[in-house]
Model the fold of this input.
Amino acid sequence: MQSKAIFRIFARYNSSFMKKQLLITGATSGIGRATALRMAREGYAVTATGRRADRLETLAQEIAAAGGECTTLVFDVRDAEQVRRFLEPIERIDILVNNAGLAAGLEHIDRGDPHDWDAMIDTNVKGLLYVTRIVAAKMVAAGGGHIFNIGSIAGTEPYENGAVYCASKHAVHALSQAMRADLLADGIKVTEIRPGMVETEFSQVRFHGDRERAAKVYQGVEPLRGEDIAEAIAWAAQLPAHMNVNDMVLMPAQQAGAYYTHRNR
Done:
């Protein structure tokens, strides 16, 4: 009886180990949450990170109820020591989705709040770097992997009142291109996803919880959803080993760019 129990434990461990391992930051809402659910359906063992423990627990329960596997890690990507402490013990990561990010404020540069600037730069740029530094080293040692960076059309189309957010996403765009070159010989794919208008908590965060102002951003438009971005990631992740999507720009049908949006009356 004891030997049978040991065999069952080994079988469960071996099954988990054989699954591809996916790590996603900012998985408590929006694109991150949708991607965790989508990739779990693809058979990935998901490690979901974020700052809101209750939301991560709900996500893990939802994935488990559907027969998937999800581990949660509660930490802040802006804290390099937390990133190191939580991520270094992970043995293997096949796919990293650098999703954690935010916009804060929408003012001319002379009226911007430096606290908002710090939040955007620390999360969108430094947080991405802290996580990538740990995970990329694991991928290099393993001889392969795939990194997805969630950028924005703002990274290549700067707009009024968004100077620091646009700058942070321009950094993500440049970092994605440089990562692709740095990791090329190690067999690691790098893909940047640059969405246009996506209805998540993004605008609520930008307007510091003002739901009415946030809702106006999407008036007259059918925006993308987190699930749309998750679908793009799932597609790019399953491509043959000899194919890589360097850069993917996704837009609602009613949006042609940062300055061109057709709104229904």
